[in-house]
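Support reply, case 0932

Customer input (verbatim):
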Amino acid sequence: MSTGYHQIRVAVEDCHRTTFRTRYESYEYLVMPFGLTNTPSTFQMTMNDIFRELLDRCVIIYLDNILIYSRSREQHLRDLDAVFTLLHKNRLITKGSKCDFLKQEFEFLGHVVSTEGVKIDPKKIKTIQEWKPPTNIKELQSFLGFVNYVRRFIPNMAGLSAPLTGRLKDHDCFWWGEKQQVAFDHLKITLTSPPILPISDPDHPYEVITDASDIAIGAVLLYDFGDGLQPVAYESWKLQGAEKNYTVYDKEMLAIVHAFKTWRCYLTGADVTVRTDHKSLQYLRAQPNLNPRQIRWLDFLESNFHYTIPYKRGANNIADAQTQPTAHTATMLVAQTSPLLTGLFTHGYKIDPFFRSAIHQQHTTATGHYFNKRDTFCIWQHITIDYVTGLPVGPSGNDAILVVVDRLTKMTHFIACQQTITAKQTAQLFIANVIRLHGLLTAIISDRDPKFTSNFWRHLWDQFGTKLQFSSAYHPQTDGQTERVNQSMEQLIRTTCTDQQTWEKSLPLLEFAYNNAPSTTTYQFPFFLNYGQDPV
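Our regenerated output:
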């Protein structure tokens, strides 16, 4: 496009915010200037809104770069017409000298795209080939940054560049030795004839092969184009700090998680087969005792992807970062502990205040594996409650929302109210919209809002036999569940309510939509978990 930023008008009421002073007089921008922090995101959002109906169907947009792709010449002409129609409708101007039409091969964002696939721009390869050995940290950072841009074409990039990245820590004294020169030359040779990575079809399954060594993890993304599996991308990561101390199991699992994070745009919604030479990862989902880090990793994989992990022997694993050390034979002896000795240990832990406190905390946290009787609850027994304030005043005078979430099913109620509501009015709304439908509660978790800490509120729930629990002051993450629901609800309001005054009328439908979307915690629909049936 021709000076794309300048084709976006600044709102009249905001023009004065762009004022700058010269020695002659003051000026203000009427169009969006270059150089502002939020200019790229604003322009990208505008282009996405304009071409939304064509995005990922025949158009890809990166700022002012518009890529139009089609399966045939006839379809391409129709797609071109659709794009130019939208450009004309929105009064956007393109620069003819920067446009290419009906190309089988073209440059796009530093790569060359063709019917065969994606490859590195030859001009970038030439630049790397002519790069002289760095003489200081800045030059080394420039080289690694340039090479890192094309890392998806380089198998085991992290391992090859390890001698170079290790030099980045020596800020006071830059030293260039034989190992660094060998690694530098090896990277340049590797990029002499980089592979052409074919373009995959997101509707077909992928295969991810991962491996880990003592210094790095690696992965290959493969796709079957009909004539066998072919690599779509390579990825590697040099282990940092504490990662080097991980067990072999954790390093292999980290390789899987890192691969899925890197290729999330490919793997989300696709069927993925993960192949690793660590056999126990086949039973990842069935492991009874996972540490907190492994639980976080497993939660990320389970909540975002569809994958299976069959075992692949190490000798056939193309993602091997280096030869694995020989395994040593060991013998394990198992002895049965007498009940008397077990009882003595148990009694000792019970009477020791330190161990009693430590065991209680371990068994009652989210990652604990033993549940206290009080942690086993039915639906609508334990709930969280919070306010969302600062909303535009609606037709009924409401400018806030009372958010109530069931901790078990994650079902939520959005109740419109006024920011100045009292504790008594809050109780009336709560009884009318929650107690009436779900009955009395076992516990209510809230922040320390004066309404929730008032004598009236405490006395009311004491009469009902409901326990009040409060989050720590200045630490709203204690009630993280409600905070996340609030964020989701605010996002729903921003994206669905074009008129700020209509949020109140839309609130029942927003509540219905939220309760019929899968929870990232339970992976189920809150409506279904609450009523045992789908709404339709």
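We compared this against your earlier run and they match. Two observations from our side: Residues 321-334, 369-376 have pLDDT under 50 and may be disordered. The first strand starts at residue 20 and ends at 21. Please reopen the case if you see a mismatch on your end.
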